[in-house]
Input
Amino acid sequence: MTATASARVRPARPTDLPAVAGLAAEHAAYERALPPPADLARRLETLLFGQAQPPRLSVFVAELGDGDNIVGYASCAPEVSTWDGDEYLLMDCLFLRSGHRGLGIGPMLMAAVAADARARGLGRIQWQTPAWNTDAIRFYDRLGARATEKLRYSLPLDVEAD
Output
Protein backbone atom coordinates (compact mmCIF):
# COMPACT_ATOMS: atom_id res chain seq x y z
CA MET A 1 0.00 0.00 0.00
CA THR A 2 1.35 3.47 -0.88
CA ALA A 3 1.61 6.25 1.68
CA THR A 4 -1.16 8.25 0.03
CA ALA A 5 -3.50 5.26 0.12
CA SER A 6 -3.10 4.96 3.89
CA ALA A 7 -2.68 8.67 4.62
CA ARG A 8 -5.38 11.12 5.51
CA VAL A 9 -5.43 14.77 6.48
CA ARG A 10 -7.85 16.13 9.06
CA PRO A 11 -8.18 19.02 11.51
CA ALA A 12 -6.09 18.60 14.64
CA ARG A 13 -7.76 17.40 17.82
CA PRO A 14 -6.61 18.25 21.36
CA THR A 15 -4.99 14.82 21.69
CA ASP A 16 -2.86 15.53 18.58
CA LEU A 17 -1.18 18.61 20.00
CA PRO A 18 1.79 16.90 21.70
CA ALA A 19 2.59 15.26 18.33
CA VAL A 20 2.15 18.60 16.52
CA ALA A 21 4.49 20.25 19.04
CA GLY A 22 7.04 17.49 18.42
CA LEU A 23 6.76 18.00 14.66
CA ALA A 24 7.13 21.76 15.16
CA ALA A 25 10.40 21.09 17.01
CA GLU A 26 11.58 18.88 14.12
CA HIS A 27 10.49 21.61 11.69
CA ALA A 28 12.45 24.26 13.59
CA ALA A 29 15.55 22.06 13.62
CA TYR A 30 15.16 21.37 9.89
CA GLU A 31 14.95 25.11 9.18
CA ARG A 32 17.90 25.82 11.51
CA ALA A 33 15.71 27.94 13.78
CA LEU A 34 15.29 28.17 17.51
CA PRO A 35 13.09 25.45 19.01
CA PRO A 36 9.48 26.25 19.90
CA PRO A 37 8.58 26.92 23.55
CA ALA A 38 8.35 23.88 25.83
CA ASP A 39 4.64 24.54 26.42
CA LEU A 40 3.75 24.75 22.72
CA ALA A 41 1.05 22.05 22.95
CA ARG A 42 -0.73 24.04 25.68
CA ARG A 43 -0.43 27.27 23.71
CA LEU A 44 -1.85 25.62 20.59
CA GLU A 45 -4.72 24.17 22.62
CA THR A 46 -5.65 27.67 23.79
CA LEU A 47 -5.52 29.01 20.22
CA LEU A 48 -7.43 26.11 18.67
CA PHE A 49 -9.86 25.07 21.36
CA GLY A 50 -10.09 28.10 23.65
CA GLN A 51 -12.96 30.52 23.95
CA ALA A 52 -12.55 32.21 20.56
CA GLN A 53 -14.94 30.36 18.28
CA PRO A 54 -14.46 29.84 15.49
CA PRO A 55 -10.73 29.80 16.17
CA ARG A 56 -8.56 32.08 14.09
CA LEU A 57 -5.86 29.42 13.76
CA SER A 58 -6.35 26.17 11.84
CA VAL A 59 -4.04 23.17 12.17
CA PHE A 60 -4.29 20.11 9.97
CA VAL A 61 -2.47 16.84 10.62
CA ALA A 62 -1.41 14.12 8.20
CA GLU A 63 -1.71 10.68 9.70
CA LEU A 64 -0.87 7.22 8.46
CA GLY A 65 -2.73 4.03 9.26
CA ASP A 66 -5.12 3.98 12.18
CA GLY A 67 -4.51 7.56 13.24
CA ASP A 68 -1.82 7.23 15.88
CA ASN A 69 1.02 7.99 13.46
CA ILE A 70 1.02 11.73 12.71
CA VAL A 71 3.73 12.44 10.14
CA GLY A 72 3.05 16.04 9.17
CA TYR A 73 1.08 19.18 9.80
CA ALA A 74 0.07 22.49 8.29
CA SER A 75 -1.10 25.58 10.16
CA CYS A 76 -2.75 28.72 8.85
CA ALA A 77 -4.62 31.85 9.89
CA PRO A 78 -6.20 34.79 8.08
CA GLU A 79 -4.19 37.98 7.65
CA VAL A 80 -4.76 41.36 5.98
CA SER A 81 -2.89 42.92 3.07
CA THR A 82 -2.93 46.71 3.18
CA TRP A 83 -1.58 46.87 -0.36
CA ASP A 84 -4.37 44.73 -1.75
CA GLY A 85 -7.04 45.89 0.68
CA ASP A 86 -8.17 42.34 1.38
CA GLU A 87 -7.61 39.30 3.52
CA TYR A 88 -5.62 36.20 2.65
CA LEU A 89 -4.75 32.98 4.43
CA LEU A 90 -1.21 32.85 5.78
CA MET A 91 0.11 29.31 5.87
CA ASP A 92 2.54 29.57 8.75
CA CYS A 93 3.84 26.00 8.58
CA LEU A 94 3.77 22.96 6.35
CA PHE A 95 6.03 20.16 7.45
CA LEU A 96 6.35 16.45 6.74
CA ARG A 97 8.62 14.22 8.73
CA SER A 98 11.68 12.94 6.86
CA GLY A 99 10.85 9.77 4.94
CA HIS A 100 7.30 10.94 4.20
CA ARG A 101 8.12 13.63 1.66
CA GLY A 102 7.47 13.00 -2.02
CA LEU A 103 4.67 10.50 -1.31
CA GLY A 104 1.68 12.73 -2.13
CA ILE A 105 0.95 13.79 1.45
CA GLY A 106 2.12 17.40 0.96
CA PRO A 107 -0.54 18.07 -1.70
CA MET A 108 -3.14 16.64 0.69
CA LEU A 109 -2.08 19.13 3.36
CA MET A 110 -2.12 21.97 0.82
CA ALA A 111 -5.63 20.93 -0.27
CA ALA A 112 -6.79 21.16 3.36
CA VAL A 113 -5.29 24.65 3.68
CA ALA A 114 -6.91 25.72 0.39
CA ALA A 115 -10.27 24.36 1.55
CA ASP A 116 -9.88 26.34 4.79
CA ALA A 117 -9.18 29.51 2.78
CA ARG A 118 -12.27 28.93 0.64
CA ALA A 119 -14.42 28.22 3.71
CA ARG A 120 -13.30 31.57 5.14
CA GLY A 121 -14.15 33.30 1.85
CA LEU A 122 -10.48 34.02 1.10
CA GLY A 123 -9.13 33.81 -2.43
CA ARG A 124 -5.40 33.59 -1.77
CA ILE A 125 -2.83 31.76 0.36
CA GLN A 126 0.62 33.11 1.16
CA TRP A 127 3.58 31.44 2.85
CA GLN A 128 7.35 31.45 2.92
CA THR A 129 10.18 28.97 2.89
CA PRO A 130 13.93 29.40 3.31
CA ALA A 131 15.73 30.18 0.05
CA TRP A 132 17.99 27.14 0.60
CA ASN A 133 15.03 24.69 0.82
CA THR A 134 15.11 23.63 -2.82
CA ASP A 135 12.87 20.59 -2.28
CA ALA A 136 10.09 22.78 -0.86
CA ILE A 137 10.58 25.32 -3.64
CA ARG A 138 10.20 22.60 -6.30
CA PHE A 139 7.06 21.31 -4.51
CA TYR A 140 5.47 24.77 -4.39
CA ASP A 141 6.45 25.50 -8.00
CA ARG A 142 4.75 22.25 -9.09
CA LEU A 143 1.58 23.44 -7.35
CA GLY A 144 1.64 26.56 -9.51
CA ALA A 145 2.64 28.94 -6.72
CA ARG A 146 4.72 32.03 -7.50
CA ALA A 147 7.63 33.15 -5.36
CA THR A 148 8.32 36.73 -4.31
CA GLU A 149 11.61 38.05 -2.97
CA LYS A 150 11.45 39.43 0.56
CA LEU A 151 13.28 38.97 3.81
CA ARG A 152 11.26 38.10 6.90
CA TYR A 153 12.07 40.01 10.06
CA SER A 154 11.05 39.32 13.63
CA LEU A 155 11.22 41.84 16.45
CA PRO A 156 10.79 40.26 19.88
CA LEU A 157 8.80 42.45 22.25
CA ASP A 158 8.92 42.30 26.01
CA VAL A 159 5.27 41.26 26.50
CA GLU A 160 3.92 38.79 29.05
CA ALA A 161 2.34 35.66 27.54
CA ASP A 162 -0.53 33.72 29.04
Remarks:
- The chain has a mean pLDDT of 89.
- Helices lie at 3-6, 17-30, 40-49, 105-119, 134-143.
